[in-house]
Design a protein that fits this description.
- The protein is mainly alpha-helical and about 180 residues long.
- The protein has helices spanning about 1-15, 20-30, 40-60, 80-85, 95-110, and strands at about 70, 75-80, 90, 115, 150, 155.
- The chain has a two-stranded antiparallel ribbon.
């Protein structure tokens, strides 16, 4: 039963973060089965390994795979720390440069409005799926959070959902109504 649990945790961490499963296995191997408080030690070792890998190692190794961490600015931010902790903030250098320019230009046109990104890509290996997205597997995709108007019709950085992916909006009079069709 323990082996099945380890397999499930390994798979879940790999699917969510790409590197978490491997680091989980390393943390298991570093602590002896007979060690006191082995669960706490494993969790502690995993947390340290994961944070060091995510913030120090992965950003330096990802360029070998043609990806780099999204360069955040005052105009370009992640919606949540989750995207950074889960290593879902990597893109090809060309896309990184382009989104930086777009965010800067957008803020110039819309003072105070930031470009908020959501899922992008994992740092390594083309064709490695970034669930639930089917296309975020080559460093060339990024999700951008919708920008809403407040009740006064002014653009706002506030989002209608916790995830940043938005909420259902009815089409305007001039938009195609797919649901109606």
């Amino acid at each position: 039963m323990k082996i099945l649990l380890h397999i499930i945790i390994f798979a879940l961490l790999t699917v969510l973060t790409q590197i978490g499963g491997i680091l989980y296995l390393i943390s298991i191997l570093l602590i002896k089965k007979s060690a006191e408080r082995k669960l706490i030690k494993r969790i502690g070792i995993f947390a340290v390994l994961y944070l060091v890998a995510t913030f120090l190692i992965v950003p330096n190794v990802a360029p070998i795979f043609g990806r780099e961490k999204i360069k955040e600015t005052e105009f370009l931010k992640a919606r949540s720390v989750f995207y950074k902790l889960a290593n879902r903030n990597y893109v090809r250098p060309e896309l990184n440069e382009t989104i930086g320019k777009i965010a800067s230009e957008f803020e110039k046109r819309n003072s105070g409005i930031k470009m908020i990104y959501l899922d992008a890509n994992f740092p390594f290996i083309d064709k490695f799926p970034l669930l639930p997205h089917l296309s975020h597997n080559d460093g060339k995709k990024i999700d951008i959070s919708l920008i809403y108007e407040n009740t006064n019709g002014q653009l706002t950085n506030k989002k209608k959902s916790v995830s940043g992916y938005g909420a259902y909006e009815k089409p305007t009079k001039n938009e195609y109504d797919q649901i109606e069709v």
